[in-house]
Amino acid sequence: SQREGSIAWSAVLNDNVWNTPANHGTVEFLADNKLKLVPTSTRSGVENPHPSWYLPDIPFAIEMDATMDPWYNKLTGPDDGYVYQPARAFNTNGAPDNDKDLSALLWIAWDETYLYFYEEVADNVVHVNNATTWQNDVLEVYIDPDPTAAITTGQLGFQMTSLDSADADPAALAGVTNVLGYNTTTGATPEDYARKKTDNGYVLEGRVKWEVLKDATRAITPAVGSIFGMATMNHDNDVTQREGSISWATVMNDNVWNTPANHGTVEFLADHKVKMTAASTRSGAVNDSADVWYNPGKIIKVDVPERETEQVPVVFDLSQNYPNPFNPTTTINYNVARQARVKLVVYNVLGREVATLVDDVKSAGRYSVQFNASNLSTGTYLYRLSVGDQVFTKKMMLLK
User: Fold this and answer.
1) What is the DSSP letter of 22?
2) To bridge 193 with a disulfide, which of 159, 206, 368, 375 should be the other Cys (CB 3.0-4.6 Å)?
3) Widest CA span in the chain
4) pLDDT tens series, the chain, 400 aa
5) Cα–Cα dist 199/310, whole Å
């Protein structure tokens, strides 16, 4: 019949925030209509020592509806099951023209019954017009159930096209598959997958039973600490056939479909997560460009000019990096009000320069640059934007 408890966001977690502004947190206006919420009082300097407002405990609930489930927001990179596949992550099939032509975001999860996948793909021409599945716009996933066992049978995997064959022209493409285990004669049921076309491409979502992804000598044990081999490919068909592919693998070669030694390694983690390492358990090979698959912002970066012509900033400005804290990459946005030489430099707390991100003449516009701190240690860093006689400085925190 009355209040029994409360949750709060403030510098001091006390009910008296209603009449004690010194206990409030601080809200800062950012560019792009965003706000930064800091649990520190500007009046008293008191800081909440145990902020608990990051990464809520989102329950694991995955629905096959081609809509991103909230749980996937917990994944931040290949170390827990999320990979960014830009056009530059191409394999021997050829490179897409740019990120608009083909790029993708892929999330992977698991439970005792299923391997789950959810993928958002940027593709400026979406086609299913070839009777051969891999000649279409399609996601292909290849599985090595036990990369420590000898291979005595054929490759395992599944595909999912961007469109159903019934939506294609011509419609009678009987060879086009949806989610299908190579060692079975029937595909998954409609309850096991969903797809939709979007303004800039398409979305695929599906689940495959572990019992399908096995053969006579190799099987997957869905338990924390177990591993299996995997490689993915998305193909691009703009006219009549495959023109290029992006991939996640150790060796960026189309032959991942029949060469498990080129697969990456997937390890089961707690909380339905997986660790995706671009290294082969079979061969020991390691992909030296593994950082290509990191994109903390979960936004497909398309290849367009940095300057946005529809709205030119009226002031110079430097935004707070996002995410912050970060590991190991973060994005910094800044505005240029008129053509000027721009310099964006990162310093450590001792004032030593650790990276120059921008040093060039820029036209008026909004810009974004990514900072990769994989070679730096945990700590606070400063980043400074210099434009003529104007200087903007902000702090960021690297947590490894």
Assistant:
1) G
2) 206
3) 73
4) 899 999 999 999 999 999 999 999 999 999 888 899 999 999 999 989 876 777 667 889 999 898 999 899 889 899 999 999 999 999 999 999 999 999 999 999 999 999 999 999 999 999 888 888 889 999 999 999 999 998 877 678 888 889 876 665 444 444 445 555 444 444 567 778 888 898 899 999 989 889 888 888 899 999 999 999 999 999 999 998 999 999 999 999 999 999 999 999 999 999 999 999 999 999 999 998 888 898 756 555 443 333 333 455 557 889 888 888 888 989 898 888 888 889 999 999 888 999 999 998 888 788 889 999 999 999 999 999 998 778 899 999 998 8
5) 19
